[in-house]
Amino acid sequence: MIALSQVSRIFAVGDQQVAALRDIDLNIAAGDYVSIMGPSGSGKSTLLNLIGLLDRPSSGTYRLDGGNVTDLTDEQQARARSEKVGFVFQAFHLVPRLTAAMNIELPLILAGIPAAERKARVAQLLDNYGLADRADHRPDQLSGGQRQRVAIARATSMHPAVLLADEPTGNLDQATGKEVMNLLEQLVAQQVALIVVTHDPAIGGRATRQVRMVDGQIISDTRGSSS
Amino acid sequence: MKLPDILLFASGSLRGSRTRTLLMMLAMSIGVAAVVVLTGLGEGARRYVINQFSSLGTNLVIVLPGRTETAGLGPGMLLGQIPRELSLDDAQALLRSRAIGRIAPLTVGSSEISQGALNREVVVLGSTAELLEIRHMSLGQGQFLPAGDVHSSESVCVLGAKIKRELFGQQQAIGARVRLGDRRFRVIGVMASQGESMGFNTDDLVIIPVASAHMLFNTSGLFRILVEAKSRDAIQRAVSDAEQILFQRHNGERDVTVITQDAVLATFDRILRALTLAVGGIAAISLAVAGILIMNVMLIAVSQRVKEIGLLKALGAPAAQIRNLFFAEAILLSGIGSVAGLVLGEIGTRVIAQIYPSLPVAAPWWAVLAAFGTALGTGILFSVWPARRAARLDPVMALARS
Ligand SMILES: Nc1ncnc2c1ncn2[C@@H]1O[C@H](COP(=O)(O)OP(=O)(O)OP(=O)(O)O)[C@@H](O)[C@H]1O
Ligand SMILES: [Mg+2]
């Protein structure tokens, strides 16, 4: 599904070169559940953005779903993002003026899916994530947990092959965080590749595969849930 | 992304910042309304002048003493230089031309008019019977100057409506006698009240036979000769015939000016059209200002909505789509603003028409179209930069902003 080989990402800051990722080799299959942990600044978010096609490697190659996506144009990247990738963010990133239902519908609108099909999919998602009675609420009328559920529903609305979550529980209390993780983990059963970046060992430990990063490099990649 | 969805999304974000949206639309609509109202006024003035001119007579050619270089409205005509005079016989000679139908010689002077104990200053017009029809004047009571020998100086007069009112009140004026200077004139007619029309107010005139006027003012020259060409096509012939006839009669000197009403009209038309354009252009500047306002506000919107733009990109929106969303916002803004402006302008035009009923105010269609086009154009033009800026945002950076 995801195949990174010898991927580096170097940022130029002034005349300094900051290597956020160095020679990363990583393979992730459909249905894999991977957590990425490591100290701040170790390159976790950079890696996630790269996998999510929001960024490009400085060197190395990236294959997604069988195709080489290393050097896609912006246009092609956007298309691949729309079709294959779902994002869940720590800060939820819901559009404040849109209702829960409309936030969920957004990727479908952007992809140009007909209105009738959109309505059906959104209704289904609202139901799946226990948001049916919150459909017409705006984000500021929802709790943190509800907001993240809306975000997850939105991320899955296009049936992505890869779901990327950058500290999805970072803004939630422990109980709500667990709830959110449960929802994300249900997707793994549907052969979605789930990648979660987290600082919380309890959350990271739930994954079936744990990757540790330090200083832009992967220092360990272990299988088997520790919890 | 489908067009209705783009419009829906754009209108949603416009509704999201209501005050800002309303203010921008207001700026746009004031600009459009200004163009509509001001060009409407200019066009109204132009049509007013044209109407006034055509009420003076049709196929008119005017002969005046003195030579001015241009055939239109020359400085000589306005300054009224005193050259060799035009005589009554000159006027009569013009009838030799087959292009000329009728003529009316004109002499003007002022005199004291008195009736009983009442007296006042009046403008006295010396002319002939033809004047009534050539100048499209209308008679209220009695009859106009008698037809016949132009040299006969009968002591009869026709009073303007206002003069009649002032001298006679409700009493019968026809048949009564009034004193003009040192002569007594019998009143044979009263003009219908027709109010101000260019040049003369016939309400305030006394009209007497041209020969009588010459005696009264002790002159023999004419102020003007009004010539009516037989048809519109004959106007140019009438002009050249008049010039030729007077050239011969004045011993080979070109010392008269012959102008056509059409030429004067064309000059006014040009001047007033230019004025309308200038005024419309000035108003259009306010549209450009509104455009810059839109750009400014859109730029603010881009920086305020960085996160949203980043999110849309993360959700799979390509750069072109982001650009289209911002374009759609600008088009909606300036489109709705311009429509509101057109309505506002129409209301303004009607109000002015109510206040000045004699002025035919109406914005010309080209001005309405230009205002609408300029508004929409500036709206789109000035949103290009903000839209590109939004489209180029790096989603990672945009999302990282808190
Ligand atoms: N746009 C950028 N320009 C310059 N340097 C950057 C940029 N983005 C990231 N970096 C650098 O790359 C390194 C990795 O950053 P990254 O955000 O991936 O870390 P992280 O592991 O996600 O940290 P955290 O746990 O704090 O979120 C850091 O040293 C950071 O300063
Ligand atoms: Mg990070």
Structural commentary:
The complex is a heterodimer of chains A (227) and B (402). Chain A is an alpha/beta fold and 227 residues long. Chain A has one domain (30-48, 73-223): 3-Layer(aba) Sandwich (Rossmann fold). Chain A has 7 helices and 10 strands. Chain A has helices at 44-51, 74-84, 100-110, 115-128, 144-156, 174-188, 201-204; strands spanning 2-13, 16-28, 33-37, 59-64, 67-68, 85-89, 162-166, 193-197, 209-214, 217-223. Chain A has a 6-stranded mixed beta sheet, sandwiched between helices. In chain A, strands 2-1-4-5 form a 4-stranded antiparallel beta sheet, with helices on one face. In chain A, strand 4 (59-64) and strand 5 (67-68) form a beta hairpin. In chain A, helix 3 crosses helix 4 (115-128) and helix 3 (100-110) runs parallel beside helix 5 (144-156). Chain A starts with a strand and ends with a strand. The model of chain A has no long low-confidence stretch (mean pLDDT 94). By secondary structure, chain B is α+β, with helices and mostly antiparallel strands. Chain B has 2 domains: 3-53 and 269-400, no CATH class; 103-224, no CATH class. A 6-stranded mixed beta barrel of chain B has the order 2-3-8-5-7-6. Chain B starts with a helix and ends with a helix. The model of chain B is unreliable at 70-77 (pLDDT under 50). Classes of the chains: A alpha/beta (227), B alpha+beta (402). Chains A and B meet through helix 2, strand 6 and helix 3 of A and helix 1, helix 10, helix 11 and helix 13 of B. Bound molecules: adenosine-5'-triphosphate and magnesium ion (MG). The site of adenosine-5'-triphosphate (ATP) has 11 residues of chain A, from strand 1, strand 2 and helix 1.
Descriptive terms for the model:
heterodimer; A: 227 residues; alpha/beta; Rossmann fold; six-stranded mixed β-sheet; four-stranded antiparallel β-sheet; 7 helices; 10 strands; B: 402 residues; alpha+beta; 13 helices; binds adenosine-5'-triphosphate; binds magnesium ion
